[in-house]
Amino acid sequence: PILTHRHLGAQYPVTCVGHADLVDDGNGNWYMVVLACRPNQGYTLLGRETFLAKVTWEDGWPVVNAGVGHLEEVVTLPYEGQPSDDVPQCKTYTFDTPSLPLELLTLRNHRDHELELHAEEHIVRLFHRCDSLKDCGEPAYLALRQQHWNCEFETSFIPHFCKESDCAGIA
User: Fold this and answer.
1) Residue 76 lies in a domain
2) What is the pLDDT of residues 18-40, one digit of tens each?
3) Do 100 and 156 lie in a common domain?
4) How would you class 101 by CB atoms within 10 Å of its CB: exposed for 0-12, middle for 13-18, buried for 19 or more?
5) Do 28 and 99 sit in the same domain of this protein?
6) Distance from CA of residue 136 to its chain's centroid?
7) Which residues form the Beta-xylosidase C-terminal Concanavalin A-like domain (predicted)?
8) Sheet strands (E) in the chain
9) Beta partners for 57?
């Protein structure tokens, strides 16, 4: 491999490096977009994140972060524009549209009849399934990927149980 962190050990801050694409920015600069994890207390809460590495060419072969030997925490890019602060810091889901927002995820083989959107009440209703999250089945599940190390969320949650063995919660 032309890029690995295997030699740095499992305790290194960036692990599971791989699955990369080479990118030419059109100005003669080459980069590698690569997936990797940043474990926190043994867990990779954000999954495999996208990292960027500089690439140079030697004898027709790509060299990633020449002289460094690993992914760097900060990569400086040539950029002539102005940075934007237009990134929303807070997102509210009102469920007032006929379909779920694309960034909300369901688990496995979600079927439309297993949830209802009630636009006038601003709620989404999930219908009970016998499967739990630890089963290989198809539990009633709606998710939003965690995108930042620090985040807060708030929701109203009203479970309706049919029998004692039913369970519901936020995962």
Assistant:
1) no
2) 999 999 988 899 999 999 999 98
3) yes
4) exposed
5) no
6) 22
7) 94-170
8) 15-24, 30-37, 49-58, 61-64, 104-106, 115-118, 123-126, 142-144
9) 62
